[in-house]
Amino acid sequence: MNERALIDDEHYEHTLRAEHTEIIDRENIVYEKPGTLIDIDMHYCPGCGHGVVHRLIAEVIDEMEIQSEVIGVAPVGCSVLAYNYLNIDMSEAAHGRASAAATGIKRVMPEKYVFSYQGDGDLAAIGTGETIHTCNRGENILFLFINNGIYGMTGGQMAPTTLEGMKSTTSPFGRDVATMGAPLKITELIAQLPGTYYVTRQSVHTANNVRKAKKAIRKGFEYQKLNKGTCFIEIVSNCPSNWKMTPIESNHWLNDNMLPFYPLGDIKVPKNGGK
Amino acid sequence: MAKVKGDIIIDIEKCKGCELCIEACPQDSLERSRQVNNKGYLYIVKVLDNCTGCTNCALVCPEGGITVYRKTETGKKQIAKIDNVTQDMNIEVNE
After folding, report:
1. B39 contacts in A (CB within 8 Å)?
2. Consecutive 10-residue averages of pLDDT for chain A (275 residues)
3. What are the structural domains, with CATH classification, of chain A?
4. Angular region, A246: left φ>0, alpha ψ -120 to 50, beta rest
5. Contact A31 B65 (CB under 8 A)
6. ipTM
7. Residue among B7, B41, B53 whose CB faces A46 most closely
8. CATH topology of domain B3-93
């Protein structure tokens, strides 16, 4: 940081006005915002992982060219307005019932790609029953489960996935396992069900993990055409506002505390490699 | 070795100043601005001219506000092209 402060004002002003070189050209683009992501400002807090996941979904849809064949179901939670940002058909479900709504959509239109986008309070707390039974029936839908260990939208209350000893507004002295129970690893839980086909846990806190998460989401969409069962992708994410940290601190905290308890990687993969 | 040169354009009105791209940049070429944008955030600017176009900043940006450009200046003429390495490998050699 000290070294950066040495950049003097004159140089700084110069860089702001720096003319674009010949590299800035349409044919040299290696990365740009996907077309399926609508070009408006998101309401998420600075540094929130939801924006990255929205962008990855849009990238996968653009790459597979299935924009007109995808139907998403938005949850209740921070991502309740996800339909404002993705230029696809989307539906809104009651709190926790996104998997039930997605089941109905998929059964009526089995040729469509259907996914539900849910947070941990939605999928693992109020919608536990719907989630487990949808996975047990083996509906051919894709779950995108964003786990940040807290209720983000309502102000940082304790969620089922809150870590042991982690402070929240309803566990101000840290989560006590004796009275509040242990954190729920719902991804491992549903991986035991016979209806699930592909279960994995990813994160988006570094560039490398973003690349891996994108591959997982792409697999989740591709496996839907096989009609073999439910795909479930958990994405461990951060919540800088309710963890009371800066975005960079929250990513370090996620790496040091969340990932040892929620280890990344595939939990259930198709036996024949998804062929 | 081919010289790789990159550049980025940051949409400063979308930027919320979370600084994740500063952390992700292996070249340390990004820096926080001293002015605020219309939202009131200190946006991010590129201050050094050593970008390689690795796309790390764009991958971690939650707002999708970074566009990355990359140009490879090859000194020698391309004589062979290998593609589809993951499946059946296909090699074309230019005469």
Report:
1. 41
2. 49 53 81 92 93 95 94 94 94 94 95 94 92 94 94 92 94 93 93 94 95 95 92 95 94 95 94 72
3. 32-268 (3.40.50.970)
4. beta
5. no
6. 0.85
7. B41
8. Alpha-Beta Plaits (3.30.70)
